[in-house]
Amino acid sequence: xxxxxxxxxxxxxxxxxxxxxxxxxxxxxxxxxxxxxxxxxxxxxxxxxxxxxxxxxxxxxxxxxxxxxxxxxxxxxxxxxxxxxxxxxxxxxxxxxxxxxxxxxxxxxxxxxxxxxxxxxxxxxxxxxxxxxxxxxxxxxxxxxxxxxxxxxxxxxxxxxxxxxxxxxxxxxxxxxxxxxxxxxxxxxxxxxxxxxxxxxxxxxxxxxxxxxxxxxxxx
Length: 220
Prior knowledge:
By secondary structure, the protein is α/β, with parallel strands linked by helices. The protein contains nine helices and eleven strands. The mean pLDDT is 95.
């Protein structure tokens, strides 16, 4: 990307975007009307700043777009940042939205039979195989990960595996599926992320937006 092109801000679809909209407003960013139209098919949107445009992508893809320079800035949960661990990314601002936790869970009857501290080789369904393997390896546990992109809670009841690693908010979905939290791997919130190369080549513009988001997050 050249310095003449607009700064591109990558935002995640879904629940986080709803929480993010007040922060966008507090940052003085007003996307074009199509951004709020659920039937709109476009993925890139102009804003009230001629030098800033927005792209809307899947939450797991935000980090990739920013890491590879397709976007200069983005908003991603630290679960995504931990999973991919891209060295090209810098996460200077905790936006304080999307709060949840990444946890290990298992059926209650399994926990009645087994002590989790004595696990040695386990099979786990998760969207986060990298984090999961690293977490259990640090405890000397070999984790065989089955990658799923959703409906993790079904895996134990259907015999796919007995344990899962997933995001947990209230815990109601786990409870409804007979699962119990075993331990928390990490507390999760959404962060403003920056492409390190863009920060070097366009320091004034990028830094100004970082400070704008920082002030909006602190004021929220």
